[in-house]
Each structure stands twice: as C-alpha cells, then as structure tokens.
Amino acid sequence: QKEVEQNSGPLSVPEGAIASLNCTYSDRGSQSFFWYRQYSGKSPELIMFIYSNGDKEDGRFTAQLNKASQYVSLLIRDSQPSDSATYLCAVTLGNTGFQKLVFGTGTRLLVSP
Amino acid sequence: DGGITQSPKYLFRKEGQNVTLSCEQNLNHDAMYWYRQDPGQGLRLIYYSQIVNDFQKGDIAEGYSVSREKKESFPLTVTSAQKNPTAFYLCASSIEVPLAGGWTSTDTQYFGPGTRLTVL
Fold first, then answer.
1. pLDDT at A83 over 90
2. Rounded distance, CA B61 to CA A58, Å?
3. What does the DSSP 8-state code read for residue B100?
4. For residue B100, is pLDDT > 80?
5. How confident is the model at residue B104 (pLDDT cuts 50, 70, 90)?
6. Which of A76, A85, B43, B112 could join B35 via S-S bond, C-beta 3.0 to 4.6 A?
7. How far apart are CA A79 and CA A75, in angstroms?
8. A42, A99, A103: which is closest to B43 by C-alpha?
9. Is the predicted pLDDT of residue A95 greater than 70, yes or no?
10. Alpha carbons B3 and B25: distance in angstroms, whole number
11. Is residue B42 within 8 Å of A104, Cβ to Cβ?
C-alpha cells in the first residue's frame, strides 16, 4: 500500500460544478495534511492545510479530514477553468523523530467552460 | 519580498558531468528540502536539512549530494553517478513544529520555481 494515494484522474467537471478530490493515507500517526495545486510546468502552491478532524473552509475551497478513516478530501465549489491543474495531497509521515511531507501522485482536474 | 529562488530555470548536462542546482530562501526557515518530480509523478524527497551543517538522506539520495553551510542556502549537486537525472527539481523550505515526545514535524512547505534538468 502506498503511503499517500490519490486517483490520478483526470477528473472532468463543468464550470460552476463542485469538484471533489480524494486522498487516503497509511500512517495513523500523521498529524498534518496539505493540499497543493500545481499548474503544468510550475511548482506546487499551497491551497489549504488541515490538522483536525472535520471541515475547514477557505473561500471556494473546503478541506475535510477523517482521521479514523485515514481520509482527506478537497472540495472546490463553483469550479472555474482556471482551477484546471493537478492537485497534490501531502501528509506528514515519519518514524525517525522528524515527520516529513509525503506526496501523493496527484489528481488532474479539468474544468470545462 | 520573502521567498525561495532556484537557479538556473533550465539546465542541460552532458553524460558524466556533475551539475549544481542553487536554492536560496529569505523566509528565515530552518528546514530545507530537495524533491525530484518525474512526468506524471508526485514529488520524491532527495535530501533534507533541519539545521545548518546537518542534512539527511531522503528516499532517493543515491547519485546526489548537498551542503548546508548557510541557513539561507541549500545547493544540490547531481553527480555522474545519478543514472537517470532528467527531471524537474524542486526546493522547498519550512519551519519545524514541536510534537509530543520530543519529535518535530515539518510545517507548511513553500516551494521555489524549480529547475528543469535535461541530460543530453
């Protein structure tokens, strides 16, 4: 089992719809969870982070964390063509005294006008 | 403006050459990281450093070397021992946060713009 798993997609949604991106992780000791957006040829940029169970909202974005199910998701409301990118889930993992970030392979989102 | 810079943006290497990628940050972060990204793949950790003059191997350190002589700088050398170096290289930095039991964890990592290395 991979440490952080994401469906590679592409996930295709029409403009204005809700896009739902999912991520599962293997280590129950993980403390912090991040979503990054990466446009083609560019470096990742932080969208949201979440530390506690439940929902966290920031504008059109909502992160959801369920530690019991080892599941974190990102909802994008009112999707725009500019949201078309690869979304990377990242989770802190480690057993050597320092928890590092481990990234999923990313889900490609395509928003059609 | 605070941020992370990487240079060069594009780099071409001949077989058997060593090349060094630069990474500088002015965010006053203690921890710095190097990742490699291959097409359609996630980021894989090469090396990281939590403090000046100390660094640790990541998951794919073979064929790479680093130094951390200054807090602001964390250069990566891709040696001739790296058999498949063509990739997108990303540098990041973060603060560390304390956890229970004396552990620490990376906090949000901020990325530089990346260096695209191609072997000719």
1. yes
2. 37
3. G
4. no
5. confident
6. B43
7. 10
8. A103
9. no
10. 6
11. yes
> N- to C-terminal Cα distance for chain A?
37
| SS3 of A72-84 | EEEEECCCCHHHC
Residue B106 contacts residue A51 (beta carbons within 8 Å): no
Cα angle at A46 between A42 and A50, to 5 degrees? Answer: 155
Please judge whether A99 and B103 are an interchain contact, meaning their C-beta atoms are less than 8 angstroms apart. yes
Backbone angles phi, psi at A58, to 5 degrees: -145, 100
Choose among A44, A100, A103: nearest Cβ to B106.
Answer: A100
Instruction: Provide, as residue numbers in chain A, all residues whose Cβ is less than 8 Å from the Cβ of B56.
Output: 98
In this structure, what DSSP letter does residue A106 have? -
State the smallest CA–CA distance between residue B70 and chain A in angstroms: 21
**Residue B98: cis peptide before it, omega within 30 degrees of 0:** no
CA dihedral B5, B75, A93, B94 (to 10 degrees): -40
Q: CA-CA distance, B63 to B45, in Å (whole number)?
A: 13
Cα distance between residue B112 and residue B92, in whole Å: 6
Q: Structure tokens of A28?
A: 């129950």
Contact across the interface for B109 and A101, Cβ inside 8 Å: yes
Interface A-B, measured as beta-carbon pairs within 8 A, has a size of 64
